């Protein structure tokens, strides 16, 4: 949370509040807004009332008591409705009434309303002197859009859609400027979204067009331990196909940056110099954003030297030192000169978001969704993998990712990327010693982080765009997963955009079930990502080790629940993951999961909405009413209605009774609205994913959106419980055709509960629009009976089905020196001997 925002006052509004502000004129019957100056009239009314009470109670109450009551009433009148348990709201002078607060507070509508208010006030002509009640009403109307009828009390739940507009439709920059001037940045605290957040910490979400959403985030435990459970070499036959689209150039708003003299021979492809260390900078940044065309440019050392002179005035700075010293050399190229010079080696950044996501005004990035040059190359990643992977060292799976890939990026604003990428600026990881270690090394060596600071211990695996090593930050006993990518290779294979996407997404993440990116830097011709190391292998390997190669439903529920939360968070950030499969789910040392591998993800705009849930049951009153019909047809009604009125509750079964009791209780408590942050407007035509996991709409090339993640989620659950995927054919083509045309079938064995099958069925609906999760995203899926009883908020504290072998971290490096130094030496030698011309095995 930005410090600037910390002081932002909470506004809680309610219809009661409006009612108090709206006074019916007895004479003309019109409703008038009560202006601040009219508060005294309320006071007068109350005084009058009190007089009445005085008269009535004079004989019974002591004068003192009356005085106390009167005083308190007067105070109440002055303070406006205040009920037990409600917190006093301030902000722009709006107090709250508790019932609405109960209904909305947890779902941040108050903050959203404040935001909406600020937004409105920031508009030209908006009067900051508007009456308080008027402001409330305007706020209410701006925030709460009641479907059907306007002016309906918010707590009269009828399942209406309440929409919070978090994306400014208009003057983002103006707004941001105003906010920065006033020192206030509206934010939405997504309270009650326990799945996404913790109770104690707030993290910034990417800036949605100038507005910052804050999420309270989960804390996380986790120290790296050197252990590998990857002795098995189970290879699935799933193949990776990379089918690339060279996407169209995207017009992306980025902040112009200062030249950096130290950028020679380095890769530049970011729009986010991660240099801003305070919130106001963030705010100012969004205010100063201008549109530039950025193109990722690769320069090898030699070409960089040649171009150094001509680029010297335009090479962007990544402000390494200000980023906690973390080398952050991936800066944007913004000048025309660079555009020119980069033509031959550029991978253009394209964008694929729906018109919905892009047409909403200058507050949102305008993206070029044309795909200019589509080259379709199918590469069998399994072949590459089989070449590159060392047998028995790490999980082998040929379930590989297909990518007729377009980078599909709607990179909105640099603050989106830099906001959480600042070293240590990730609340759930901020106390992690690895940040300290990195800072320590930088301090010691007085330089930015580079490959020389790492001791490569062993190769963890190779992917489509790079090789991942277990690496120790020299002299710190801290282990990291170091992903090293060869820039020349990326450029030549047109994979630069994928690398960029992955890095940008990693920079945004701050979630217990997603990896933390500690640093990134370029070293000679390599781009390196310093990530959290996950020692427990992947779920593919773990599944192979299970009896019958499938997980129990209980275990599966744990893993899919954590994956669901990770996906929910990603969707909330505007990231459609697209490559869910057990191979991409790593197991942490504490047994919890980490979803990895974002190079095929789609970035898009997201517009969180608040859905007001409606009670699904009849009101208790109605249910307990006697049958008044002359002929009762209630199935449980045993007594003829003409003799004795039948009271349904007395005659229903025990189970039904319990259900009804629960329903009654639920009906009495206003159901909380649901926050839905599903990027439903995201659209891509890329052919990406993994054959067995590909959604039908991707195969059919119809264009796809976030619903593909719910399809893959269904396949994932199926594979965990049945030990295989549902549509796999003898070859990839068969698999694809099965996905499109075969109906879903469940094997007779193992026996799987109807809840699980029902959830899978809901997720594996071929039409994306009818698929579970397609409308309300994870919120919808979480409510499925498969997850009944699961405590989403505390899942990170749940005991995982399996713990990877635990090593004493203190001894890890010592152990390593004995058993693994050999390999470590080999990895180091590999670098030393080959120098800048080092070739990775995978390439
Ligand atoms: N943070 C990490 N901790 C431990 N092992 C990791 C980590 N990240 C990656 N790995 C291992 O390194 C391997 C290569 O990862 P990488 O993300 O580069 O490629 P990939 O998952 O095979 O997919 P893709 O080819 O799509 O990039 C993975 O299979 C995984 O086993």
Automatic annotation (TrEMBL):
GO MF terms held by the record: ATP binding; protein serine/threonine kinase activity
InterPro entries tied to this protein: Kinase-like_dom_sf (IPR011009), Prot_kinase_dom (IPR000719), Ser/Thr_kinase_AS (IPR008271)
Polar residues composition-biased segments: 367-380
Keyword Nucleotide-binding recorded: yes
Residue spans of biased composition, Basic and acidic residues class: 381-393
EC number: 2.7.11.1
Catalytic class of the enzyme: transferase
Biased composition (Low complexity): 271-290, 312-322, 341-356, 395-424
A Pfam match: Pkinase
UniProt keyword annotations, A-Z: ATP-binding, Kinase, Nucleotide-binding, Serine/threonine-protein kinase, Transferase
Gene3D superfamilies in UniProt: Phosphorylase Kinase, domain 1, Transferase(Phosphotransferase) domain 1
Stored CDD domains: STKc_phototropin_like (cd05574)
SUPFAM superfamilies: Protein kinase-like (PK-like)
The Protein kinase domain, residue ranges: 454-787
Sequence segments annotated as region (Disordered): 252-427
Catalytic reaction list: L-threonyl-[protein] + ATP = O-phospho-L-threonyl-[protein] + ADP + H(+); L-seryl-[protein] + ATP = O-phospho-L-seryl-[protein] + ADP + H(+)
Family, as annotated: Belongs to the protein kinase superfamily. AGC Ser/Thr protein kinase family.
Name of this protein: non-specific serine/threonine protein kinase
């Amino acid at each position: 949370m930005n410090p600037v925002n910390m002081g932002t006052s909470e506004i809680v509004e309610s219809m009661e509040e409006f009612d108090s502000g709206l006074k019916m004129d007895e004479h003309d019957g019109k409703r008038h807004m009560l202006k601040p100056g009219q508060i005294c009239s309320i006071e007068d009314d109350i005084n009058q009332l009190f007089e009445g009470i005085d008269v009535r109670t004079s004989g019974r109450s002591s004068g003192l008591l009356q005085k106390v009551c009167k005083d308190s009433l007067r105070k109440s009148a002055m303070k406006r409705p205040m009920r037990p348990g409600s917190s006093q709201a301030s902000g722009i002078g709006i107090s709250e009434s508790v019932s609405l607060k109960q209904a909305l507070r947890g779902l941040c509508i108050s903050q959203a309303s404040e935001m909406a208010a600020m937004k409105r006030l920031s508009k030209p002509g908006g009067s900051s002197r508007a009456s308080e009640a008027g402001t409330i009403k305007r706020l209410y109307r701006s925030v709460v859009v009641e479907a059907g009828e306007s002016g309906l009390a918010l707590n009269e739940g009828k399942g209406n859609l309440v929409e919070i507009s978090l994306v400014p439709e208009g003057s983002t920059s103006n707004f941001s400027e105003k906010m920065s001037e006033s020192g206030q940045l509206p934010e939405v605290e997504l309270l009650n979204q326990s799945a996404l957040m913790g109770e104690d910490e707030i993290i910034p979400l990417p800036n949605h067009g100038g507005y910052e959403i804050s999420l309270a985030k989960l804390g996380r435990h986790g120290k790296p331990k050197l252990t590998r459970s990857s002795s098995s070499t189970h290879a699935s036959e799933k193949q990776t196909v990379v089918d690339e689209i060279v996407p169209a150039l995207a017009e992306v708003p980025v902040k112009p940056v200062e030249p950096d003299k130290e950028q020679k021979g380095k890769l530049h492809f970011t729009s986010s110099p991660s240099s801003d260390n305070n919130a106001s900078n963030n705010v100012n940044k969004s205010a100063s954003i201008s549109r530039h065309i950025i193109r990722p440019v690769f320069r090898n050392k030699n070409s960089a030297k040649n171009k150094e002179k001509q680029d010297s005035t335009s090479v962007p700075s990544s402000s390494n030192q200000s980023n906690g010293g973390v080398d952050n050399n991936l800066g944007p190229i913004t000048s025309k000169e660079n555009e020119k010079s980069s033509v031959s080696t550029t991978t253009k950044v394209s964008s694929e978001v729906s018109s919905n996501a892009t047409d909403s005004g200058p507050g949102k990035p305008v993206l070029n969704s044309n795909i200019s040059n589509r080259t379709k190359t199918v590469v069998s990643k399994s072949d590459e993998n089989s070449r590159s992977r060392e047998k028995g060292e790490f999980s082998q799976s040929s379930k590989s990712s297909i990518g007729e890939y377009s980078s599909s990026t709607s990179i909105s604003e640099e603050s989106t990327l830099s906001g959480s990428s600042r070293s240590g600026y990730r609340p759930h990881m901020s106390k992690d010693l690895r940040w300290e270690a990195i800072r320590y090394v930088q301090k010691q060596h007085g330089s930015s982080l580079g490959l020389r600071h790492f001791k490569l211990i062993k190769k963890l695996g190779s992917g489509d765009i790079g090789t991942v090593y277990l690496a120790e930050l020299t002299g710190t006993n801290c282990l990291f997963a170091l992903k090293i990518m060869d820039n020349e290779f990326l450029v030549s294979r047109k994979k630069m955009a994928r690398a960029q996407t992955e890095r940008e997404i990693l920079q945004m993440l701050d979630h217990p079930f997603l990896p933390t990116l500690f640093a990134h830097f370029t070293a000679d011709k390599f781009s390196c990502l310093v990530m959290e190391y996950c020692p427990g292998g992947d779920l593919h390997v773990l599944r192979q080790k299970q009896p019958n190669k499938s997980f129990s439903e209980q275990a599966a529920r744990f893993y899919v629940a954590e994956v669901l939360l990770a996906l929910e968070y990603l969707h909330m950030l505007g990231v459609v993951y697209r490559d869910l499969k057990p191979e991409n789910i790593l197991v942490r040392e504490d047994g919890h999961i980490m979803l990895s591998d974002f190079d095929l993800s789609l970035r898009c705009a997201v517009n969180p909405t608040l859905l007001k849930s409606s009670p699904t049951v009849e009101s208790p009153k109605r249910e307990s009413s006697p049958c008044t019909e002359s002929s009762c047809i209630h199935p449980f009604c045993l007594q003829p209605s003409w003799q004795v009125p039948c009271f349904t509750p007395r005659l229903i079964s025990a189970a039904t009774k319990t259900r009804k009791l629960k329903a009654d209780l639920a009906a009495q408590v206003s159901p909380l609205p649901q926050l839905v942050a599903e990027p439903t407007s995201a659209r891509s035509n890329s052919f990406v994913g993994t054959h067995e996991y590909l959604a039908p709409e991707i195969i059919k090339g119809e264009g796809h959106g976030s619903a593909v993640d719910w399809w893959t989620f269904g396949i994932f659950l199926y594979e965990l419980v049945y030990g295989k995927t549902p549509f796999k054919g003898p070859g990839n083509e068969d698999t694809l055709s099965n996905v499109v045309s075969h109906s879903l079938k469940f094997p007779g064995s193992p026996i799987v509960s109807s809840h699980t099958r029902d959830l899978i069925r809901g997720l594996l609906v071929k039409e994306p629009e009818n698929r579970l999760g397609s409308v309300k995203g994870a919120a919808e899926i979480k409510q499925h009976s498969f997850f009944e009883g699961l405590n989403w908020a505390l899942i990170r504290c749940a005991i995982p089905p399996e713990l990877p072998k635990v090593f004493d971290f203190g001894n890890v490096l010592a152990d390593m020196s004995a058993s693994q130094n050999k390999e470590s030496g080999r990895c180091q030698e590999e670098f030393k001997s080959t120098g800048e011309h080092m070739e990775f095995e995978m390439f």
